[in-house]
Amino acid sequence: MFKELDPILHSQLRLAVMSLLIAVKEADFTYIREKTNSTAGNLSVQVQKLKEAGYIDVLKQFKDNYPQTTCKITPKGIEAFEEYVKALQQYLQAGKEG
Amino acid sequence: MEDQKPLTEQESLELITKMIHKAKNGFHESGTSAILWGTVVGIAGLVSFSEIQWNFSIGFDIWLITLIAIIPQIVISIRQARQRKVVKYEESSVNAIWLVFGISIFALSFYNNVIPAISDKFFAADGFELLIKNTKTGESKHFVPYILSASSLFLLLYGMPTLATGIATKFRPMIIGGILCYIYFLISCYTPSKYDLLLNGIAGITNWLIPGLILRACYLKERKENV
Asked: Does residue A69 belong to the interface with chain B, where contact is any CB pair within 8 Å?
């Protein structure tokens, strides 16, 4: 029985954000935007969706009078990411065998 | 990157690999701290060796520049914390290693300065006196103990954080620098103190200055590519 791929993660930009955040402790919004080559507007929407799902924490603060948004993956996000990768592996394994 | 495009399983896996690779490899420290401390320790070691070797004095203890260097280090740390866009997992561990190293260096300096006089007092309190005898003249005189080959202990201490950082960050120049430091330590156990000071200076250069300059070159190259 195949596990269903998590619809929150099975989207290009959200998956890219989660893959970045799983590899680092925390990252600035501008860093994520640079690495994903996304627009600020689109990224902002996807970050909000990940936050609502409880997969990331978003900290908004002021640094030297400039707003700064820092994102960090949550334990729930790590678990969901690991489940997503396991499910992917199942699909790919089935594809090879089939 | 768009979000509407449907992903196949293969594409998802490739995207994950690509982003993790970007996060792991796309960031270099500026190397400023390593250059600062490499220069300071390098100069201090070479100057103190030169003073003994060529019998002159610059009028003050050159190692005091390590205390002065704390001021620019604080400025560098604050500036880097402000400019930082991403914090890697290994960074926290590496920062902790260097903080503990800083404390240990000052603890060792304290030990080297305090132990001789304290030991002398303890011997006296127990009714003993250390004497040193000139085997040529037969003359004996009071001897205040000192830490033998104290510079070797510093070399041993320099090697630890450098090698640990090199291994944690997979940065080969620091791994080589750390290993060299342990080699200098072994050599210094067999050499007179003035050469131990020379080895301290060389350690500063190979441990921190050279890896720092390499780090700096990587950082500047990365910045140029991102412009």
From this structure: no
| Residue span of the structural domain in which A49 resides | 12-93
CA distance A58 to chain B (A): 14
Token digits of residue A66? 């400039």
Asked, for residue A39, whether it belongs to a domain, the answer is yes
Residues in chain B closer than 8 A to A34 (CB atoms): 226
DSSP states of A49-97: HHHHTTSEEEEEEEETTEEEEEEEE-HHHHHHHHHHHHHHHHHHHHHHH
Report the complex ipTM: 0.87
**A80 within some domain:** yes
> Residue A24 — φ and ψ, nearest 5°?
-130, 165
CATH code of residue A42? 1.10.10.10
Look up residue B64 and give its DSSP letter. Answer: G
Q: What is the pLDDT along chain B (227 residues), one digit of tens a residue?
A: 655 567 888 889 899 999 988 887 765 678 899 999 999 999 999 999 999 999 999 999 999 999 999 999 999 988 888 888 888 888 888 889 999 999 999 999 999 999 999 999 999 999 998 899 999 999 999 988 888 889 999 999 999 999 999 998 889 999 999 999 999 999 999 999 999 999 999 999 999 999 999 999 988 887 777 66
CB contact under 8 A, B9 and A42: no
- Quick one: closest CA in B to A96, which residue? B10
Residue A45 included in any domain: yes
